[in-house]
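Data card: per-record layout.
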Amino acid sequence: MISHFPVLNNIYVEKAVLNIPENVPDASEPIESLLEEISKSANEAEKNIIVLEILGLLKSDGVYDEKEKVFMEKLVQGIGVKEGILSKINSLLDIYEVVCRELHSTIAE
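The structure for this 109-residue chain is written out next.
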């Protein structure tokens, strides 16, 4: 079954309903437990990828506010990411955003 729902500025997106059961994990455990588990089980590259993906998600709306910054600091400390990695990834994402905008402008000419 295909359904439609408004997304932005009267643009509609088709959504296929696949009847897949929803699996919502138990979130009653404190986040610190999850961070400790990641810290113990993930290697450095995996930790850095987690930081990259979550930071990219937080910045995707164009706003990286103080609450998000505090969250990222807790995440980085909690999973044991090397000092300076958050700042470096943040800077690289800013560059990436500029490059993407310039590519889009060039393509749309």
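Known properties of this structure: The chain is about 60% helix and 10% strand. The first strand starts at residue 2 and ends at 8.

See the next section for split statistics.
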